[in-house]
Amino acid sequence: MNCNYTTLAKDTITKCPHCESPHITTTEACTPLGFCTDYDADIKDFNGRFDFQPYTTSLTLDAEAKLEYTAPCHNLTIKSNILPKNGLVHQINTNDGKLFKVGRLPDTNRYVAKEAYPPNNQPYTFDEKQIALIASKTTGVLALSINKQTPQTDLNPLPSNQNHEEIKAAFISWGYLLQRAICSYLDIETSEIEVGYQINKNKQSEIFLVERLENGAGYCNYLSGRIFEDVPYNAFIKPFQENQPIYESLMQQEHQTQCSSSCYDCTRDFYNQQHHSTMHWRLGLDLAKIAHDPNQPIDFTAPYWHSHIQTITNRLKNPTKTNNTYIITHNNQKILITHPFWSTEYIQTLQTTHHFDKTLNIIKAEKLTKEI
Ligand SMILES: [Zn+2]
Ligand SMILES: [Zn+2]
Asked: Angle at CA 191, nearest 5°, toward 186 and 193?
């Protein structure tokens, strides 16, 4: 569940084949033929508005999906399905982990959620069960991951890396930046392409893009570069470079000062509310930078970090800056502000010059106010 590995198989597994976690959640899931809230009400036309909130659902790629590698683009590894039938995805609603309690009404095939009725008017039901709701489809899917890293970074997404949560948040943020870039490139609505995150079988973070339409409209196949080889560069990498509209809109002074992590002008939308509190557009841009060229340094010298790190460190105590390294002092201890992508080896090399006592990553530092 940590890594989003999902299979509909009935066999029991004791260990996740992707992240090796022993914590496997097995749930009875069903796909209803239809939903109805009131069987006695008059039938009305759909007015185009959903009254339910879709943010408790999560998008997962089925373990049976068969994605094939295409030519890499710069430092991006790209996989996609050539035939829609090989891209099986699920939208799963576990009711925030609580599942839905349903029971069958006598003499019908209808299952109802008894708790939805007024307490004094609950119907008799039998065959009660706890279920998750699942909607599955096959469509165009494209998965993106980072190929190479330098010793400066460690993007290991497993819990053995103390920054694994920030790394996951970075990939999800990059995913939504990519959604914006792709939809602008293809001139389509962002609702046409959905974004998912998983840890793949090589134990790497992977962003997958899913076409909204059943069987797909062909976007992912086009984006894969199988037809025109310059498409992946133009859709996934170029939009995050200087002088490109998406990059420049993120870099606007007003956005930089007002958006410390994410907002509706960068990575947020109504459908990704479950990620609003963790997404971080600056970390997303750092991944876009690694996707372009793994040899570019990842630190706070990037233009989008510059004023932000100064604001954060000035708010804390006694900031000092040497060679683009930020150290704050608290209780006579020197604390190095680190980037969540930095490897332990890289932090050790900084230790030999800066002699700090502790480290604090910038995402945690942001959440602190004056006193630490
Ligand atoms: Zn796993
Ligand atoms: Zn923003």
From this structure: 60
Evaluate if residue 371 carries a pLDDT over 70. no
Which tokens sit at 134?
């699942």
Measured in Å, residue 265 CA sits from the centre of ligand 2 at: 5
Q: 175-207: per-residue pLDDT in tens?
A: 999 999 999 999 999 999 999 999 999 999 999
Using the mean position of ligand 2's atoms as its centre, give its distance from the Cα of residue 366 in Å: 15
Residue 15 scores a pLDDT above 80: yes
> Angle 334-338-341 (CA atoms, 0-180°, nearest 5)?
160
d(CA 236, CA 238): 6
Q: 262 CA to middle of ligand 2, Å?
A: 4
Chain CA centroid to CA 85, Å:
24
What ligand is nearest to the CA atom of residue 23? Answer: 1
Q: Say what the pTM is.
A: 0.91
Ligand 2 center from residue 283 Cα (angstroms): 12
* 46 confidence band (pLDDT: 50, 70, 90): low
CA nearest to 334, candidates 323, 342, 326: 326
| Region for residue 129 given its phi and psi (left: phi exceeds 0; alpha: psi -120 to 50; beta: otherwise) | beta
- The string over 185-215, giving b where at least 16 C-beta atoms fall within 10 Å of a residue's C-beta and e elsewhere, is bbeeebeebbbbbbbbeeebbbbbbbbbeee
Give the pLDDT confidence of 4-13 residue by residue, as tens digits. 888 887 777 8
- Give the whole-angstrom CA distance, residue 94 versus residue 109: 22
Confidence of residue 55 (pLDDT cuts 50, 70, 90): low
Which bound ligand lies closest to the C-alpha atom of 251? 2
DSSP 106-147: TTSS-EE-GGGS-GGGPPP-EEEEEEEEEEEEE--EEEEEE-
How many angstroms separate the CA atoms of 101 and 128, rounded?
Answer: 7
Which of 65, 98, 112 shows the shortest CA–CA distance to 210? 65
At 280, list the tokens: 């971080």
